[in-house]
Design goal:
The complex is a heterodimer of chains A (372) and B (379). With 372 residues, chain A is of the alpha/beta class. Helices cover 42% and strands 9% of the residues of chain A. Mean pLDDT of chain A is 83; it is low at 323-327. Chain B has a single domain (14-338, 347-369), classed as Formate dehydrogenase/DMSO reductase domain (Formate dehydrogenase/DMSO reductase fold), CATH 1.20.1630.10. Chain B is built from 14 helices and no strands. In chain B, helix 1 packs across helix 14 (346-369), helix 8 (208-235) packs across helix 13 (308-332) and helix 11 (280-300) runs antiparallel to helix 13. The chains are: A alpha/beta (372), B mainly alpha (379). Chain A binds chain B through residues 322-331, 333-337, 339-341, 343-344, 347, 351-352, 354-355, 357-363, 365-366, 369, and chain B through 34-40, 43, 45-47, 110, 226, 229-230, 232-234, 239, 307-310, 312-313, 316, 339-346, 348-350, 353.
């Protein structure tokens, strides 16, 4: 086993220790055990043949790629580039022009049925898809062609998943996600704007290791990453439950880190693991809500780029009905009021008074009895 | 057949109408509570989750309703049949006190619509210290209804049912003695669960159940004296002072036992100095102890014990003592941490007063229409 990783150290330029740590981290974000992490490490260290990846770019800002490039310590991009054979990627290709396009065609022919297709960006469909062309061919045709013989298709980012910002009304180019232009194909969606690179890496690693895709939900998003609402794991959730809200940016509640729901946070209706994984590997709550900005629902179709930024989210989980009493901190509860003290005193006085009257009556009847 | 008879007479006396007004005000605030939530009416907060609705209506209210329990022990356990004339009135007061204690718990419950979960084993929360009390009180209310049923059955003349009930009534009486012993001691044990929030003068990790049970019994006997004296003053009934003064004698024994345990616990745990050095808590402790000592002094003297007037004052003092003991432990000296304070709001007090007014009204209506009290022989 040790020997296996020695060649890897040379090949990837990472220490064995760092490499295993990386694999364990990836396995953990998938919810897998340590033995699975070793399996992953072996899958990378002794690749039968490095899987070919074809990466298409449509209508987008290259956010997902940028996010992926910043995913880890400097060794990561080398790892991901050497671990798979990235044969076509417009941002990262060193070549250009017809040469690259030719290489892509060759690769797809050679690896038919074995390559992994990653789609980044939305696909315009209006007017035959003329609004996005690469090498004279529409993105629509590129996508359909590449998907034909792909072993698996991953739509990386909200644009590729469901159209993203391009599909926002009025959607002049008829932008759509990969899934809707590829009927009958299974497209794994990793939405987010930008998406979290670890959700992508974990999905790819799962595919490399086990040859299958991770478990998907009804929108074909990996369950390990999109199985829960942001609201469920949000660090500000206790403030929501206790009714403590920031009401405007910079107010006292905002400074104290209260819940951002009333500022339009879409956490209650957006499925993503942002609060658990965060961004940029620096910890300390580095994600939108963590730094004080309401979630805008980038990863959820029909929320991000669709709902107004500051409109209240539709709380999908348990919402307390109006007749629930508030459970806010009531440290400032008014103490004794004059009215309450008067009523309380009157009640005690009434008992003592009644006892006095009764006692007098009993005493007089007693004396009249004895006189008789 | 008992010799008790319905008192008859008009129900809508000026006093009764005044009670109706108090009840109506209470119902208004109760309406607000159910429309807008507990927070709209009560001052309870994160530090003081239990306000007077729990501490008075449940903890004190059920202790005040221990008359039926105390008399049942005396009559059926120690076979002192001579107290039987007092039994029905005491049972009625117990039934009302407990039923409205149950209502108090219900209105104080955040998710009151799940009240019935208490009765369903699959929903029971076995980690809750309140489960035993809740089940026990709920069962005891049913038992009290059955125990009081003969008064109603006599009134409607259901002789067959009365005879059948008579054969099994001893079972319910036995359960009716067991259940309050269980939950009255548990009500004291709540304080154990609250740990250091309870002032050391009121906290005891071993003696809480004993203290709660002894004070509940004292209060039970006192309420019998109180209620019999008040009824006599109000309705001009038979003189029962000879019976009541004997009850006073029982209270002397129980009260002595209570004070020995109470001060013994304080002295053994080296807390005696706190009685004088705890500021506000010292004042409350001394006031509470004074209220406990007054009935002891009055009732020890045979002359004063046989005087209905001083006997009543002893009972009133004892009722205040037992209530203040509970108020002190659960609310007045309770310390949930800095920043929290609690005093019941007007609405909160009015709901409780409304409940008490309802109790008094029901008592008046039932003693006038059902055979509960003993009418004067010369009437």
């Amino acid at each position: 086993m040790k020997g296996d990783f020695e060649t890897l150290e040379k090949r990837l330029g990472v220490s064995r220790r760092d490499f295993l740590k990386y694999c364990t981290g990836i396995a953990a974000s998938l919810g897998l055990s340590t033995s699975d992490a070793i399996a992953m490490a072996e899958a990378v260290a002794k690749p039968k043949k490095r899987p070919v990846v074809i990466w298409l770019h449509g209508q987008e800002c290259t956010g997902p790629t940028e996010s992926l490039l910043r995913s880890e310590h400097p060794t990561l991009d080398r790892l991901i580039l050497e671990m798979v054979s990235l044969e076509y990627h417009q941002t990262l290709d060193s070549g250009a022009g017809h040469k690259v396009e030719h290489m892509k065609e060759l690769s797809m022919k050679e690896n038919a049925g074995k390559y992994l297709l990653v789609v980044e960006g939305a696909i315009p469909t209006k007017d035959g898809g003329v609004y996005c062309k690469i090498a004279g061919t529409t993105m629509l045709d590129h996508t359909i062609e590449a998907a034909e013989h792909a072993a698996a298709i991953i739509a990386f980012g909200s644009c590729a998943s469901w159209g993203g910002v391009q599909s926002a009304s009025p959607n002049p180019t008829g932008a759509q996600g990969a899934q809707s232009v590829l009927p009958g194909k299974t497209v794994v969606n990793i939405p987010g704007c930008p998406p979290n690179p670890y959700n992508f890496l974990a999905t790819v690693m799962h595919f490399l290791t086990f040859g299958t895709l991770p478990e998907l939900d009804n929108q074909n998003r990996p369950k390990f990453a999109y199985g829960r609402l942001i609201h469920e794991n949000c660090e500000r959730r206790p403030h929501f439950d206790a009714g403590r809200f920031a009401k405007e940016f910079g107010d006292e509640g905002h400074k104290k880190g209260y819940c951002l729901y009333k500022l339009g946070c879409k956490g209650p209706e957006t499925h993503a693991n942002c609060p658990a994984v965060e961004f940029n590997d620096i910890g300390g709550g580095t994600w939108p809500i963590g730094v004080g900005h309401p979630c805008f629902g980038c990863a959820e179709e029909g929320v991000g780029f669709t709902k107004p930024l500051f409109s209240l989210a539709d709380v999908k989980t348990h919402t307390p009905p109006n007749q629930f009493p508030t459970i806010e901190q009531r440290e400032e509860t008014s103490g004794m009021t004059a009215g309450a003290a008067a009523v309380g005193g009157a009640a005690i006085g009434a008992i003592v008074g009644a006892a006095a009257v009764a006692s007098k009556k009993l005493g007089s009847s007693e004396s009249s009895d004895s006189q008789e | 057949m008992s010799q008790a008879k319905p008192l008859g007479g008009t129900i809508f006396t000026p006093f009764f109408i005044a009670m109706m007004v108090v009840f109506a005000i209470g119902m208004y605030f109760l309406g607000v509570r159910f429309m807008n939530g507990i927070g709209a009416v009560a001052n309870i907060n994160g530090g003081y989750p239990w306000g007077i609705w729990v501490v008075y209506d449940v903890v004190i209210g059920t202790a005040l309703a221990c008359g039926g329990y105390a008399l049942a022990i005396t009559i059926y356990l120690f076979n002192k049949g001579q107290y039987h004339p007092l039994m029905r009135a005491a049972l009625l007061a117990s039934l009302l006190g407990y039923a409205l204690g149950g209502v108090g718990a219900f209105i104080d419950m955040g998710r009151y619509w799940q009240f019935y979960h208490l009765m369903m084993p699959k929903h029971m929360n076995f980690n809750s210290v309140m489960l035993e009390v809740g089940l026990c009180v709920a069962t005891y209310i049913l038992v009290l209804i059955i125990e009081f049923a003969p008064a109603f059955l006599e009134r409607i003349g259901a002789k067959g049912l009365l005879k059948a009930l008579d054969k099994v009534l001893f079972l319910f009486i036995a359960i009716g003695i067991l259940l309050p012993t269980m939950h009255q001691s548990s009500l004291g044990s709540f304080l154990v669960a609250m740990g250091y929030k309870i002032s050391p003068l009121w906290q005891s990790l071993y003696m809480q159940p004993v203290l709660a049970l002894l004070t509940a019994l004292c209060m039970g006997f006192s309420i019998v004296i109180f209620e019999a004296s008040m009824s006599k003053a109000a309705f001009d009934l038979d003189d029962e002072t000879h019976l009541l003064s004997k009850i006073g004698k029982i209270i002397v024994g129980l009260l002595t036992a209570y004070l020995v345990v109470r001060f013994g616990e304080i002295i053994v745990h080296g807390k005696f100095g706190l009685i004088f050095t705890s500021g506000k808590n010292s004042v409350l402790f001394i006031l509470e102890t004074a209220l406990f000592v007054i009935p002891l002094v009055i009732l020890t003297s045979e002359k004063k014990r046989n005087n209905p007037s001083t006997l009543l004052w002893a009972a009133v003092s004892m009722l205040f003592a037992g209530s203040l003991y509970r108020f002190n432990a659960f609310l007045l000296t309770y310390n949930p941490g800095p920043g929290y304070s609690y005093f019941p709001s007007v609405g909160e007090i009015m709901v409780t007063l409304g409940i008490i007014a309802f109790e008094v009204m029901t008592y008046i209506v039932l003693v006038k229409t059902l055979p509960v009290l003993h009418k004067p022989k010369h009437a």
